[in-house]
Amino acid sequence: MSQRATQRRYWRRVLLACGLTLTMVAPAWAQGQHAARTGLDGSYALRVSQEAVGRQIGEHVLLNREGKPVALSSYRGKPLLVSFIYTGCFSICPTTTRSLQNAVNDLQKAVGPNQFNVVSVGFNQPEDSPQALKSFARQNGISNPNWDFLSPPMASVAALAKDFGFVYAATSAGFDHVLQVSVLDAEGRIVHQVYGEKLAAGDLGEPLKMLLAGKTYRPSSALLDNLMDRVRILCTVYDPRTGGYKVDYSLPLQIAGGITFFIVMMLFFFNEWRAGRARRKGSRGAT
Predict the structure, then answer these.
(1) Are 130 and 256 in a shared domain?
(2) Rounded to 5°, angle at Cα 169 from 165 and 172
(3) Spatial separation of the C-alpha atoms in residues 47 and 100, rounded to whole Å
(4) What domain count does the chain have?
(5) Cα angle, residue 150 at apex, residues 145 and 153 outer, rounded to 5°
(6) Does residue 223 sit in the same domain as residue 141?
(7) Nearest Cα residue to 52 out of 216, 189, 169
(8) Please, what is the angle between helix 250-286 and helix 3-37, to 10°?
C-alpha cells in the first residue's frame, strides 16, 4: 500500500472518530440546555415578586460577615435596597452585584452619603456562610460602609424569600432566580421591585428620591412590563442528593471536542491540498 493511501485511511479514521464523538455529545448538550431553560417559570416568578410590593417585611435575624446577628428591622429609619445572591455563582451574581455597586455609588453622589442602606442576602444555605459572603464581597470589591452581606439560617430561607417575593429554582446548571432588587421604605415595607442584570442609578433613583422626600412611590404600569432576564450559571451543577454543588465539565469538553473536530477538518483539507499540489508538480516535472 502506498504512503498516500495510508495517509488517507488514517485521516478517514480520525474524521470518523471525531464525527462519532460529536454525534454523541450533541444530544447531551441539547438536553442540558433544555434542563437549564425549564428551571424557572418567568411569568410565575414575576407575579410572585410583584405581589410582595406593599408587604411589610417580617422580623428576620441573619448573620453579617463577622458572624454577628443582625435583624432586618435594625435598618428601619432609612430606605433599604435588598438583593439576593449565591456565592457559588461565578457569572450572573457577581455581574449584578458590581452593577448594583455602580448604581449605589452614583446614587450616593446624587442624594448624599448615608441616606440609605444596602443588603445582599446569600440564599443558598449552608454554602452562603458569613465567611463565604465576606470572600464574595472582597472579590467583587464591595467595601461600601452602608452595604452589608447577610447569611440567613437555613430554616428561615423559605420564609425570607417569600416575604420578598424572591423565587428561585435549582437546576442542573445551578440556580435560576429572579434578578431583582427590592426597594424598602423607612418602615421596612417593599415599595418597588427593580429587575435586570444591568442596573442604573435611574432605576433606583426615582423611588429613593421620593422616599427621602417623604412621598409615596407608585411605579407606572409600563415599568411593570419589564420582565426579568433568565439566569443560567454555566459549568455548575446542583446535586439534589447532597444539596451542594459540583463542577460540570461536560460543556467545556463539548466545546473542546467541537474545536478539535474543526482543527482536524482543517488539517485534513490542508493535507489534501498539499498532496494535490505535490502531485501536480510531479506531473509537470515528468513532462
Answers:
(1) no
(2) 165
(3) 23
(4) 2
(5) 160
(6) yes
(7) 189
(8) 150
List all residues 6 or more positions away from 171 whose beta carbon is below 8 Å from its beta carbon: 35, 36, 38, 39, 40, 232, 238
Same domain, 210 and 129: yes
Q: Is residue 50 located within the same domain as residue 143?
A: yes
Condensed to tens digits (0 to 9), the pLDDT of residues 168-189 reads 888 766 788 888 999 999 999 9
pLDDT (tens digit per residue) in 58-78: 999 999 999 999 999 999 999
For the segment 269-280, the average pLDDT, to the nearest whole number, is: 75
